[in-house]
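Students often ask why we bother encoding 3D structure as a string. The short answer is that it lets us treat folding as translation between two languages. Here is a chain of 704 residues written in the first language.
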Amino acid sequence: MKKSVLLLCAALGALAFLPTKSDADWTRSNGPWSATVMDILANGSNLFAATRGGGVFLSTDNGSSWMPLDNGLTNPYVNSLAVSGTSLFAGTTTLYGGIDGGVFRSTDNGANWTLASSGLTNSSVNCFAVSGSNLFAGTDTLNGNGGVFLSTNNGDNWTRVSNGLPVDHILALVVNGTSIFAGTSSSGVYLSTDNGASWNAVNNGLTNLTIAALTVSGDDVFAGTNDGVFLSTDNGSNWTQVNSGLTSLFIHSLGASGTDLFAGTEGGVFRTTDNGTSWAPVSSGLTNRYIFSLEASGSELFAGTWGSGVYRTPDSGANWTWSSTGMTAGDIRSFAIDEQNFFVGTGGGGVFLSTDSGANWDNVGLINEFVYSMAARPNGKGGASFFAGTMGDGVFRSTDNGATWVSATSGITVPLIWSMAVIPNGNQQDLFAGSWGGGVFFSTDDGTTWTPGGIIQGAPLIASITYNNNYIFIASWSSGVFRSSDRGLTWNPVNAGITNTFVNALWINGNDLFAGTLGGVFRSTDDGNTWVPVNNGLTSSSIYAFIDSDTNLFAGAGSSNVEPGGVYLSTDLASNWNPVSPGLINTNIRCFTIKDTNLFTGTYGGGLWQRPLSEFGPTPTPTPTPTPTATPTATPTITPTPTVTPTATPTATPSATPSPTPTPTSTPTATPTATGTPTPRPIPTPRPRPTPRPRPSPPLFLGQ
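And here it is in the second language, the structure alphabet:
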């Protein structure tokens, strides 16, 4: 009997014989997914949104509804937008292998995109500024090859104009007459008065040199920092801190609307009507107050959030309403299902529920939470208790199908819950939760109380949990697979043959145990005593999730700086893999589940995707194949150890991680989500939430 109860993010592969026509492609699962919106741009009656992992979206009805604009936009991680003349520009990150970064250009309002990065020596583009016919792009820096670039021919060619700039990330650009200001990640503000030919530091009075936002109001220049807002009334020669009334000092965006100035922070939106002398909160209706971007359009102001999409206010922030219908670019981390309910946990947007197999979705709570793992525990009465493991607030439980959620953390000493599983114990079902920094916890009373398991030496993060026969297995980052024969009281490493011990996912198929690592897939046929690599056909080695359907085994891979990620399929117990990703705009896979006759996969920032199982062809009984000989798999050169506290890191978006999901069976199953945390600016809360500028860049290891 299959005993896998936990799924991590993974890439899906397909058989070579599978059809490639459009009716056999993955399709977006429409839901009220709320994207992380890095930038918003108003251009006439059109409103554009740049998302982290979902590409660009367009609204022609003032934000009431949105549609994706991804034709030709081969990199969905968009940091910034600009309009110059009749062209629309999108600045993307480079951290997703197989995907071109840099600048993309559209001359037809976003309907089609082409790469326009000739001359860019660093293609992680964080910001734009337009001055007449000149287009400036601010980038990350690597070995001194970044900084500011200038195009005088509508993006056809770029020239580096960084003389005098420090080796630092450029996070913000703004034009004030003939002056151009650049905000850096650690060196303050720089000014150019000769079209970027030379730059000089203008930091007198600045007490914080991380400049995440710049804007101009009249003749005044404002800078948003990690320590509030600063004002210059003399074109940058001197700065004065203007924080009166600001209760959240991490400023991620600044925007002007008429004579009002707004600041987007990690604690909501603030407004000043007296040029920064005093600020007041204007966040009524903002259920997510982690604000990444602000943009005024006509009499309305729009705010882009981390994980909850766009909000709109018609009255200068007095009242906000969610305005993201159609923005199907959420960060999907985890699943939990029973016969009637289909729950999805998201990174920053809380929990969503569908009762019609994914046709329609509703947000059912925990808004603003990073729900990296979920589980469904049968209650013996035909229903289930549903659990959500969060990155920062521990575990929540719902006994009324998601209508309400209550904290269920008694006994849990670490609030960062990365994985969950339901494991049978005689006639009852026990809950297990894997944490970041505290090992494993288990509950025998439906989550009312939790008991810490035994010490797991050298395992900072528990990414996956599963069981087989009399053993419980866990996957850890940096220390491989551990096994317990006494229900978690003691743990022993079982890594013989595993050459990469950053393990993201575990899956059981019969008596075969599979481990997804940063070095590919490994299989054990003896309960983990020995392992052999099974990677034939895999073109991506960072595996985050598994699921199976009869004899079809799927693996989900994450994108990296050298690999594209995606979904892979094996029909012979992983001896051979084939890619099956046609139609996926985002190939950074984080989790799988099966509901009725469809396979669903959650991506890092690209929303939920689905495909009928019938499109993967018949599932013939495999011919027994000899156990492959163990051949060492090269360990990736970069395998950083995750740390619980995010650290400031340039450019964007938390990099992601997986989330699990059970194969639908009569018994609900838990599905954890492995997710990496972006490296952002320091956040004043313990949760590893990415903080913007430097925009969190997707982790190359372990995903987010």
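Translate back mentally: Residues 1-22, 619-703 have pLDDT under 50 and may be disordered. Keep this in mind for the problem set.
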